[in-house]
TrEMBL record:
Family, similarity comment: Belongs to the polysaccharide lyase 1 family.
Main location: secreted
Classification via Pfam families: Pectate_lyase_4
GO BP term, example: cell wall organization
Keyword Cell wall biogenesis/degradation included in the entry's annotation: yes
Native source species: Aspergillus saccharolyticus JOP 1030-1
GO MF annotations in UniProt: pectate lyase activity; pectin lyase activity
UniProt subcellular location: Secreted
Keywords: Carbohydrate metabolism, Cell wall biogenesis/degradation, Disulfide bond, Lyase, Polysaccharide degradation, Secreted, Signal
Function in brief: Pectinolytic enzymes consist of four classes of enzymes: pectin lyase, polygalacturonase, pectin methylesterase and rhamnogalacturonase. Among pectinolytic enzymes, pectin lyase is the most important in depolymerization of pectin, since it cleaves internal glycosidic bonds of highly methylated pectins.
Record protein name field: pectin lyase
Record SUPFAM superfamilies: Pectin lyase-like
Length: 373
């Protein structure tokens, strides 16, 4: 872009009163993330340029003002997959990634699957980046974002990540972290994803804040064959501290979230609406403090059969918390089986200056996601 054209573009954005910098500051474990800091904003205009800005070694503020559609950019693959939940039109099929279909053996009929290659692996995001969308214009379609291999200090705000092979399990994840630190994801909308909306892999993800995001689980294809997405938020790790607050989880049916393997989760002020299966699955090594959350029309708030972690959570305010974190814990609303009295969780988080939640509410239905900064 010529200098004059850049000036015109920036002036146009300024005129509309639209941000070309990060709005607000992170709360929770990633509070010290600064992303691209005060680097001059760049506005990519092609998928190639976006990939280059995200993956290079410069600190960058990357402003999105258009849709980046990766569908078709890497071709398609036709292969034999399987149908673990049957072949009815509302059911997800599965790509046989790493022989995953073997888990189902004879119970899952083989089927032909044709998927978009771009969806199966996200765009690499390097350290010291802010990725921000203007209004509701910044959309990444057909490919997710991947923060792995030791990256740190990344802010992603006010974008949408959509349409990643939604027909197929293993079709792709929206937001992946694995061996990362200081990542803040805020006001992001994810919709129509093949696998996970958010996945933190088995390596340490250290300090992460996932705030005010809209996890839209409504899909034509689902593992529960009922238009409710099953694969939503998978928090694995080896030394992870995750703040998850202000998020809206709509039309999900499982793993919302699944937490395990030395992962601490402070989960507060979120709103779940219309979940046809389970919300929480807490495995061994999952340490969860859940407070000020609101559950509405959720079939099973906590999967009790597989519960092997540590949980502090209640539908009543608890003064037990005061001696550990200096304040009472805030009551959840309609938490059902999500009750726990583990003071291990509280004592392990005692030095972390946890944010203080508001009362549980349905506010995230209108305040979460892209366009609601
Ligand atoms: C990120 O920025 C910090 C502070 O300027 C710098 O020390 C670090 O090397 C940068 N990281 C990368 C991978 O560029």
């Amino acid at each position: 872009m010529k200098y004059a054209a850049i000036l015109t573009a920036v002036a146009a954005l300024a005129q509309q009163g639209l941000a070309t910098s990060v709005s607000g500051t992170p709360v929770g474990f990633a509070a010290s993330a600064t992303g691209g800091g005060s680097a001059a904003a760049v506005t990519p205009t092609s998928t190639t340029e976006l990939v280059s800005y995200l993956g290079d070694d410069e600190a960058r503020v990357i402003v999105l003002t258009q849709t980046f559609d990766f569908t078709g950019t890497e071709g398609t693959t036709t292969a034999t997959g399987c149908a673990p939940w049957g072949t009815a039109s509302g059911c997800q099929l599965a790509i046989n990634a790493d022989d995953w279909c073997d888990n189902y053996e004879s119970s899952a009929p083989s089927v032909s699957v044709t998927y978009d290659n771009a969806g199966t692996l996200g765009i690499t995001v390097n350290s010291n980046k802010s990725l921000i969308g203007v209004g509701t214009s910044g959309v990444i379609k057909g490919k997710g974002l991947r923060m792995v291999s030791g990256v740190s200090n990344i802010i992603i705000q006010n974008i949408a990540v959509t349409d990643i092979n939604p027909e197929y399990v293993w079709g792709g994840d929206a937001i992946t972290l694995d061996d990362a630190d200081l990542v803040w994801i805020d006001h992001v909308t994810t919709a129509r994803i093949g696998r996970q909306h958010y996945v933190l892999g088995t390596s340490a993800d250290n300090r992460v804040s996932i705030t005010n995001n809209y996890i839209d689980g409504e899909s034509e294809y689902s593992a529960t064959c009922d238009n409710h997405h099953y694969w939503n938020v998978y928090l694995d790790g080896s030394s992870d501290k995750v703040t998850f607050s202000g998020n809206y989880l709509y039309k999900t049916s499982g793993r919302a979230p699944k937490v395990q393997d030395n992962t601490y989760l402070h989960i507060y002020n979120n709103y779940w609406n219309d979940n046809s299966g389970h919300a929480f699955e807490i495995g061994s090594g999952g340490y969860v403090l859940a407070e000020g959350n609101y559950f509405e029309d959720v079939d099973t708030v906590l999967e009790t059969d597989s519960f092997e972690g540590a949980l502090f959570s209640s539908d009543s305010a608890s003064s037990t918390c005061s001696s550990y974190i200096g304040r009472s814990c805030v009551a959840n609303t309609n938490g059902g089986d999500l009750t726990g009295t583990s003071t291990t969780v509280l004592s392990d988080l005692a030095d972390d200056s946890l944010p203080t939640p508001s009362a549980a509410s349905t506010d995230p239905a209108t305040s979460a996601g892209q366009g609601n900064l």
